[in-house]
């Protein structure tokens, strides 16, 4: 039978290696609450990782604030479409 010290060391090493492996695949940024109102002066947007528990669009405001928004809301979809259109035609800004 293995000494208690060896068992403890092996358990510790296994726990640390499992923690390191799972932490490597964790999403970097997720949203847990959505903005309730339209964002003024949106500059850009991006979607959060598919690994997040809630789907979200992050809208970047003119002052640099990053605000989580519900991708199912009409105002969010209109904002996204407008930003995509501005990206294709920068002269319309």
Any overview of this molecule?
The protein has 93 residues and is of the alpha+beta class. The protein has a domain at 28-92: OB fold (Dihydrolipoamide Acetyltransferase, E2P) (Beta Barrel). The chain is built from two helices and three strands, in the order H-E-E-E-H. Strands 1-2-3 form a three-stranded antiparallel sheet, with helices on one face. Strand 2 (57-61) and strand 3 form a beta hairpin.
Quick overview:
Helix content is 39%, strand content 16%.
Task: Quickly list its features.
93 residues; alpha+beta; OB fold (Dihydrolipoamide Acetyltransferase, E2P); 3 strands; 39% helix; 16% strand; elongated; inflammatory response; chemokine activity; Chemokine_IL8-like_dom; chemotaxis; Interleukin_8-like_sf
Instruction: Look up the CATH topology of the domain at 28-92.
Output: OB fold (Dihydrolipoamide Acetyltransferase, E2P)
Low-confidence stretches: 19-24
Order of helices and strands: HEEEH
- How much helix is in the residues? 25-40%
Distance between the termini: 74 Å
Radius of gyration from the alpha-carbon trace, in angstroms: 22 Å
Count of DSSP H/I helices: 2
Q: Widest sheet: strand order?
A: 1-2-3
Structural shape: elongated
InterPro entries: Chemokine_b/g/d, Chemokine_IL8-like_dom, Interleukin_8-like_sf
Domain Chemokine interleukin-8-like: 27-83
Main location: secreted
GO cellular component, one term: extracellular space
């Amino acid at each position: 039978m293995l000494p208690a010290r060896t068992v403890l060391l092996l358990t510790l090493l296994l726990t640390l290696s499992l923690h390191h492996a799972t932490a490597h695949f964790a999403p970097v940024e997720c949203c847990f609450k959505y903005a309730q109102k339209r964002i003024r002066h949106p500059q850009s947007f991006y979607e959060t990782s598919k690994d997040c528990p809630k789907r979200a669009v992050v809208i970047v405001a003119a002052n640099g604030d990053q605000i989580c928004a519900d991708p199912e809301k009409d105002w969010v979809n209109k904002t996204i479409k407008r930003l995509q259109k501005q990206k294709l035609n920068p002269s319309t800004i």
